[in-house]
Amino acid sequence: MRSLNLYGGEPLHGELTVQGSKNSVLPILAATLLSREPCEIHNCPDLLDVRAAFEILENLGCTVQYDGETAVVDPTAASRSVIPDELMRKMRSSVMFLGAMLGRFGRACISYPGGCELGARPIDIHLSALSRLGVELREDGGDIRCLLRRYLPQTVTLMFPSVGATENVMLLCAAIPGETLLIHPAREPEIVDLQNFLNCMGAEIRGAGSDCIRIRGSAQLHGCSYTVIPDRIAAATYACAAVACGGEVLLHKTEPGHLLMLLAVLRDMGVDVKEDEDQIRIISDGRPDAVPLVKTLPYPGFPTDMQPLLMAAVLKARGSIVFNETIFENRFKHVGEFLRMGADVRIEGMNAIVNGVRRLHGAKVQAADLRGGAALAIAGLSAEGKTTLGGVEHIERGYVAIDKALTELGAKVAWEP
Ligand code: UD1
């Protein structure tokens, strides 16, 4: 277990280039399996989850070369269609390989994926969409065995716009000739990024980001060179750190259009937000004004991944804010740790009510999941004195060199010896 010491209570001043998107690169890495030639993925962030995806690709017979920025995946020799349970458990996105393996081999065997413990996180929407497309599913001692007997291109409607289910359908349908309409898909920027990558490989997909995606697949997907979009959740993390601590922070290589909801809420809170083409500047006095309600919703609503981050940013707000979490039932684990720092937060069912306090103090806290852990780092930096944050490996699943990034913003952090 790695622990990071944060010496907080000082404003942040600095600039940072935002990493490539974790939630984009993981389905894109799965998609490389569909090609018959090498693919070059640029802006590929060096994360534990990305390393886990490399391990899965290698296990399936691909070769991967990575220099910390560009990954070259050669899927030519891929031959296996089974992912061992220990690799499946390493992260949630292992489930993306289901659609990719079905697209490449017409069969796949996986077990239930791991990832952040945010609730039950079933995959029933993925499985029912795949079965509508002609995939036969059999559960056998914890394994899910899938066989594509006869592809049935058609209209598939998702009952809920699941990000992962949308990606699995796109991955399968991109690799098989025929046209499928996906109704009520997820609309996240990462879905658009996957569409763009699959189109670079020779698929014909239109409509990602809207209520309907039309997928025309091709059996001849080829290699390509592609640059992953900036990570909007990482950008939100550093923006929220600036709001929590006060000061001025400039984020480079961001896409403000992917952060519309967060930036709107911050402006409502009186934070000075300036946007340029690919930059965001945050200027804050460290005590944002309260807004009545922040409710998490599928994109373009307020993202559930930013809920813990924004909550950390408003622990010292002037007034009270209700956070209503509608996506994951177990996404308030950071709240108990905030209380150790002197925060005033009450949980009532799926609501967390934050009453802003004047000051927070450092404490020993423990990360239980990725974004909750990042939220604790933000709270630690806005608290006076030393905070020791344990469980940093959760954070390292999604943030490239979090210690260096925070230092670039002027924070004082050091690894616990
Ligand atoms: C993705 C993101 C994650 C983000 C989430 C919601 C990646 C790697 N992860 O996760 O960071 O928090 O979107 O924006 O991109 N659900 C079902 N059945 C299913 C699938 C989902 O009931 O078959 C439920 C989930 O339990 C959850 C909700 O739908 O309550 C959203 O899940 P989904 O959109 O699928 O999220 P992920 O793809 O797991």
Report the oligomer: single chain
Mind describing the biggest β-sheet? 4 strands, mixed
Report the portion of residues in β strands: 25-35%
What is the distance, rounded to the nearest whole angstrom, between the alpha carbons of the first and last residues?
11 Å
What's the rounded overall pLDDT mean? 95
- Give the overall shape, derived from the CA principal axes: elongated
For the secondary structure, the number of strands is 23
Annotation field: number of helices: 14
- Major beta sheet, strand line-up: 21-22-1-23
Which molecules other than protein and nucleic acid are bound? Answer: uridine-diphosphate-N-acetylglucosamine
Secondary-structure content class: alpha+beta
In words, what does this structure look like?
- 52% of the residues are buried.
- The protein has helices at residues 22-31, 48-59, 85-88, 96-105, 124-132, 163-174, 189-200, 232-245, 260-268, 307-313, 333-340, 370-382, 392-396, 402-408; strands at 4-8, 12-17, 39-42, 63-66, 71-74, 107-111, 135-140, 143-148, 155-157, 178-183, 204-206, 212-217, 225-227, 247-252, 272-275, 279-284, 293-295, 320-324, 344-348, 351-355, 364-366, 385-390, 412-415.
- With 417 residues, the chain is of the alpha+beta class.
- The longest helix is centred in the middle third of the chain and has 14 residues, at 232-245.
- The strands form six sheets. It has a four-stranded mixed beta sheet, covered by helices on one side. A four-stranded mixed beta sheet has the order 2-14-16-15, covered by helices on one side.
- The structure holds uridine-diphosphate-N-acetylglucosamine (UD1).
- Uridine-diphosphate-N-acetylglucosamine binds next to helix 1, helix 5 and helix 6.
